[in-house]
Structures are given as structure tokens and as C-alpha cells.
Amino acid sequence: MSLGGLALGGSTADAAAGETPAPQHCDENGCHYPVSPASTQRYSYPDRLRKFTPDMQADLGADEMRITFMGTAFPTSPGRRAQQLMSVFVEVGPWVPDPGGGFGSATDSFVFDCGAGVIRNYGAMGVALSRMDKIFLTHLHGDHMSDLTPIYCFGPAYDRHWPLYVWGPSRSGVENPSGSPKYYADGLNDFCGHFREAMRWHTEAFSFLPTGFPGYDIPTQQDWNTPVPLQPVGGDAADDGYGLVPIELDWTTTGLDAEGNPDYRNIAYRNNGVTITHFPVVHDRRGSMGYKLEWNGLSMIYCGDTKPETISIKQAHNGGKGVNVFIHEMILPAELLAMKNLGLTFPDYSVPGFQALVAGAAAVEMSSHTPQGAFGYLLSQIDPRPDLTVVAHFPVADDTVKCAMNSVRNHFPHSRYPEFGKDIIWSTDLMVLKVKKSGNGKPARIEQLIGQVSDYTYAAPQNVHSPLSTPKYPSPTAQLDTTNLISPGPDTYCANGY
């Protein structure tokens, strides 16, 4: 198989998962740069995929799980237009018509992380804000939660007229290294309380519109099997769109018994046949987590950001059942990350600042991320193998993906596994996976598609809820100082806007 004309290679033997790792050979230039400049400016794999258009959303079967990558980027500076920051949208079927006559929705849906820029991809793919009401944060880095602001603030102005539910980690327990035994209040409850107050001006300003839905069936802790009660911060009503409900999770809980099999003592959510559990990963500061979603005999793991660690391997083993889709981050080697950030075509230590960038990238890698070679080792330890492994949080291009694939393949020297496009892929924005059971013990059927959208899409098709609550403020001008206001009239402008 090839990728954009660059051979990926592979041997003919097929070995079992968990094979003995190959002896390490650390090439000083494992990507063999310089390469063709054209290969650095494209990612051609999605061109092979069938197109997914927003009008295909309602084609969600009763036995289907759909995973859409709304953001896939590593936060390179100043960022990449092709890849927004991290967010994965998961829906389970069947599609349910909207009783109010709107567009409808999946039986249940979940947002895993919501980094900067992803709101535009949700909108372009036709996902309304009412379908984004359950957000699972892996950690509180800005590239994983910063689009919480538009999701929360504008939901009630569109079609989410009930609270936004947010899952995330408890306090880190890391001592403030100031010489005194102090600890920061850095858990999800702390974050949501401060976030609610930080958004107060916005939420009041928009409260001349109806923001609540009295007909909303308010869920309880027992309904969703959450570890804590579902209580909005800030005193908001439980049927109001500006309610913000944190579900704080004990990030130290692995959910594994002594043999490393799931014991389900780490449930974050259970409803509609969906069970979502959480587990700790190793990333930058204590308190980062991954999630596993299981539904209808299908399963998905999203590890968020992490260094290579053992808990995700055990979670992917899943009591011997394995998982269908295993989503894990990967980072470029430090010198390649520095090279890309400086716009170079090969690692050039003579360029001013290059050595310092390499050192900084190496420090980030040491604290936070999984290098591509380490990813290959981690994948070699997962048994049974995932039906599909998906690399995320990675700056994709033909050259970077080819290089990363070579690093992964070094850990499978006597096997055709993993084959690019079949066993492993590198995700990019708007990639869609349709996952269905095959039966008879065979791997799940996973169809890969790529979104085809307009860059000029307006609001996503909405659902309709009625009647709504009475607005908090009696008119659109009730909060204004109208002393200097120019009003419509025969001598000014038309009230209808034309």
C-alpha cells in the first residue's frame, strides 16, 4: 500500500498481537528527510474515502455507532487551518425524529473534548447545539475545552433549552510548589463554578430570549448512573439552558480488578444501553483521563492526551473482548516538531533557535505525549488487537504519516499488521467512522468516510421545543441604557431591517 506515492511497506508474515518487541534501532533521521516538498503540504488518504454530507446524518441504523472527528490537531503554533483542536463526536442509533418537527437526533450522543475551532466543524457537519449537551473532558488544557465557551453560551439562543452536562476530573492533588503545603482548586467542579460566573455577563445579556424548556424531562443521578447528583452550579434551574452541570470523576479510579479486567466501578454514565467508563492516563499533570464507551456489543476508547502507559493497554484488552475502535494520541519526534514549526524541510541545527525549539519540544514530549515509536510499542502490547486503531492529536501530512507509520512498523517486523487504511489510520477533521457488528465472532464492520461540507454553512438544522419558558427580561432593550439610542422611524431607518 502507498500513501501519496510514498511506500509504506510491510513483511509477509503475520504474528500474534503482543509479540516480542523487535530489538531497538534508533535511527538519527528516521524519516529520511529531506523529502519531496509536495508531500509536506497534503494528506492524500482522505481523498480515497467516500464522501459524507450533512444530509446523510439521519442514516443512522439501530445497530450503528458513528464516530466523527471534529478536531484532530496537535496545538502547533499558530495552528493549522486543516485541523482544529481536539474533539470527537460519538452517536448511537437509531435516528429519532424530533416530536416538534425539527431535524431529529441520534438516540444518544456524546462530545469528547471540545478544543478551539471545533464549533465550526460541528456546524458545517449539521450538528445542532441541542445534540452537544453531554461533554466529556479528558483534562482541562485549553486545546481540549476552549470551545466550551460558544457551546455553552449560544446553546440557549438556538435549540438547547436545558443544561449543559460536563464530565471531567477531580482535583489533581499536586502540591503548589511555592514552598508551602498549598494545593490549587483545579478540579472540574472548581472550573465549572468559575466558568459559570465568568460567563455571567453573556448569559444575562441573552436572557431577553426564552432559555428554558419546562417540558424537559430532568434526569437524575439514578437515571444516568452518574457518580454524583446532577446539580447545576450557580443556582440555575435544572430545566434552563444556562444551567451548567459538572459531573466530577475520581481520576485515580482504574476500573480494573486485580487481574486487569473491567470491574465497572468507574462508570461515568449509563443510559440508553450506553456505558461510559473512565480511567487515568499520564499527561502533564495528575488528573488526565481517558474514556471507554460500550454499546450494543460495540466499543470505543478515547485516551485523550497521554504518555505511553499500561492502563490503556488493559482497557483495550477489555477482559479479552478487545475494542472496536482505539483512539490514541501521537506526537512527532522532537526535532521534527521543531522542523515543522520553523517551516524547514529537514532538521537543520544551524538555523538560529532550532536547538532551543528541539529542547522545548523534547520537554513537552517527556511530560505529556506519546512519540510515534512508543505508540508502535504500545500497540504491539494490545491483545486482542483493536479492529481499527486511530491516531489523533497529530499534524497529518503525507510525509509525517509515512514517517510515523515506519516507526510503528518497526515494532511488527514479522507481520503484515498493522496495514495502513485497514488496521490503522491517522485521523483528520471531518473523518467519519460507521461502526456495525459483523456477527460470528468476526471484527466489526467499520466504514471510513470523509465529510464534504461548505465553508459558508449557516446554523445547523435545529430541533423544536415548545412551549419555552418566559424570558427573564421582558424585552430586548430592558438591559440597555437607551439615552443615546437611535430608534427606527420614518426619519431614521426601517424597523424590519431593510
UniProtKB/TrEMBL annotation:
For this protein, the record's InterPro entries field holds: Metallo-B-lactamas, RibonucZ/Hydroxyglut_hydro
Instruction: Tell me which Pfam families the record gives.
Output: Lactamase_B
Residues annotated as signal peptide: none
Record keyword Nuclease present: yes
Question: What are the TM regions of this chain, as residue ranges?
Answer: none
Region (Disordered) location: 10-33
Metallo-beta-lactamase domain spans which residues?
107-148
Is Hydrolase included in the keywords of this UniProt record? yes
Q: Which UniProt keywords apply?
A: Endonuclease, Hydrolase, Nuclease
What is the protein name given in its UniProt record?
Metallo-beta-lactamase domain-containing protein
Record organism? Catenulispora subtropica
